[in-house]
TrEMBL record:
The keyword Transcription does not apply. Gene3D superfamilies: ABC transporter type 1, transmembrane domain, P-loop containing nucleotide triphosphate hydrolases. It is found in: Cell membrane. Residues 1-168 form the ABC transmembrane type-1 domain. GO terms for cellular component: plasma membrane. It is a multi-pass membrane protein. One of its GO terms (molecular function) is ATP binding. This is Putative ABC transporter ATP-binding protein.
Amino acid sequence: MIIRIAVRAPMMFLVSIVMSVIISPRLSLIFLVIGPIFAILLGLIIKSAYPYFPEIFRGYDRMNQVVRENVRGIREVKTYVQEKNQIKEFEKSSGFIYKLFATAQKIMSLNALVVAAVLNISTLAICWFGAKEIVGGTLQTGQLISMFTYSNSVLFSLNILAMITTQLIVSGASGRRIAAVITEKPTIENPKKPLKRLTNGEIIFDHVSFKYELADKTDALHDINLHIRSGETLGIIGETGSSKSTLVSMIPRLYDVTAGAVRVAGHNVKSYDLKTLRDNVAMVLQNNVLFTGTVKDNLKWGNENATDEQVVAVAKIAHADGFIREMPDGYDTMIEQGGNNVSGGQKQRITIARALLKNPKILILDDSTSAVDTSTEREIRTSLAKDMPDTTKIIISQRIVSIKDADRIIVMDHGKIQDIGTHEELMKTNELYSSIAKFQEEQGK
């Protein structure tokens, strides 16, 4: 409908102008004067109104963020009795949008005034000069009536074009935002001749440094040198903000190093095909996501071609098989949006099983058993060591008990490797590690 009108309006404008020139070239000069004036006024309106719309859309972003945070943190809002403050925050963000939109609409409403003014001035001018030509005998009454008809068609077309322009102003701001997303180039891309095979789980960090932004003054990771043997179990511990998660994110190229190199199976990770690399590196995060669908569907994210036997096997390793079978429909039980119908510990065990179904060369557990009791966690570690001996396992944890049996343990501090050794060695030589261990031991008593 809109497209049809948009196509017809310019055609109607051109035909009406041509017919007006044929009937009376002199009276048609009125359009030559009125047309540019109309275009200039319309251009000024557009120029004045357009800057408001990008700001309006940014206001919508802010308002949506406020709503999303309140919905996601509804329990905290109620617990801390922050309803009034959050309502004020919403009113502030929505009020900002209202003020901008009201101002923009006032400017845009001038379109109607301009069109009405042009219409009336044109009609008066045609009446005045047309009457003179009739008196002078150079124009007939019927021709003047035809001129009125065509002038109305011209001005109707201009009115339609003004309305379309109004819509273009709004859609133009939206289009630029969409185009910015679509044309955004990925910072991590496949090499031109990628390696399609990853043979083992050996990892080498060679003088690796990393900044989240190149303009940052300090490194998130600084001069990391580390060799992890294939099949080794490595524990990583450190205070919050010591860049433990950032370190392991370099392996599947969730981030690329700023300096140095990360090598897997003897090759720089940048030389691998991204799919090949990430298929061989499984990461399980503390706050992993489950998707709407059955338990089996979620597990098969790790391998969509896996058999039911393989699904059950990895669930047993992750000690998830027991509680899954107790669900109403077992592995065919529907998971609600966000995994709201399973507990935190159950969700973590399902995501561990999902990662294992990839049969990865490298398994990264980033605080992924924090919601699991220590007894079950110990059983999971035992199963991983028994059933996946050739898989390189990196375990990040805040709990000493989760990593004490690792082949080696890294202590990280402010983006650097402070120390490395076995649990027994670090208890003797590293003050930070031993203090964490003693504190947790006292808390556990």
